[in-house]
Design a protein that fits this description.
Blueprint: H1 2-19, E1 27-30, E2 39-40, H2 41-48, E3 53-65, E4 72-76, E5 82-87, E6 102-114, H3 116-122, H4 130-135, E7 140-152
Parallel strand pairs: 2-3, 5-7
Antiparallel strand pairs: 1-7, 3-4, 3-6, 4-5, 6-7
Amino acid sequence: MKFNLLLLSLAISVLISCTSGDEHATATYGKQFDTTGSTTLDAAILKLASGSSLDCKVVGKVKSVCQGEGCWLTLEKGDSGSFMVRIKDQSFHFPKDIAGKQVLISGNLHRDTVEVDASEQSVGGDLKTSAVKDSLQLPEVEVSMDATGLIVR
């Protein structure tokens, strides 16, 4: 009788642990951070307009992740573009399977000037045609982020 009761309680424990997963479970990578005070990517970029860098927490949807080492990811932007996020000091790696998931990223938002060589690479190095030359706006300034922490929701 005691054996049957022990077996029944073990079975119930296993069933409860398998079905009680939190659908809002999160995974944290990098430095732990407080989630209060987060903002949308567009709002953070507007705040950056008055300076050259901004420490902030940004909420967004992952568009793509580096499949090599997980060293960068892109977030979807409101204008159907993408936004580059790199890892500060390579202190951690982004998980490679989070494309399409909502994330909260803590880090430093800043402006980068794209050099002529980098712009040439983005068009395949073909600056011989005047149409390609005219389509480049040099020097180009883009906004990116160096992440210190990431929470996947």
